[in-house]
Amino acid sequence: VYSHSGTTLTSGDIFLSLYNNKAEFQRKSKQRFRLTVRKRYPNRAFVTTSNFLNLNYLPETSYYSVRDAETDEVIIPFDTEYTKLSADSTGMYFDLFMEGFQPERYYKLMFRSDNNEGTQIFDEDYFFKIIR
């Protein structure tokens, strides 16, 4: 589902971060990962609220990928149909079922956005571990 009323960032230097990443998840769980998106260097404006509180979104053509942290093997590749990022009124997100991952291993999340400037890959070293 991709439905929002915020600003879509389609160009420029974009900073993407995971919101409340616990870093360890049970093997038989489903986890919702939330993303925050903002301009790395926002335009200067004299306002009474922070620019970092505004909700921004990547374009609808944005995807996630999961890699093994040790071997860098692609576990879930970028796919234009099955790994799309979703959006709602509180930000961007995607769901992962942890049962398909090997326990006691670390995995790395990567993100891709196809925007006005071409394809942009976000590799910010976000790791998580599956525990028994």
Written overview of the protein:
The structure is a single chain. This protein is mainly beta. Helices cover 0% and strands 51% of the residues. It has no helices and 11 strands. The protein has strands at residues 7-8, 14-19, 24-26, 30-39, 56-57, 62-68, 74-76, 86-88, 91-97, 106-115, 118-131. A 5-stranded mixed sheet has the order 3-11-10-6-7, with no helix packed on it.
Chart the SSEs and their pairings.
Layout: E1 7-8, E2 14-19, E3 24-26, E4 30-39, E5 56-57, E6 62-68, E7 74-76, E8 86-88, E9 91-97, E10 106-115, E11 118-131
Parallel strand pairs: 1-5, 3-11
Antiparallel strand pairs: 2-4, 4-9, 6-7, 6-10, 8-9, 10-11
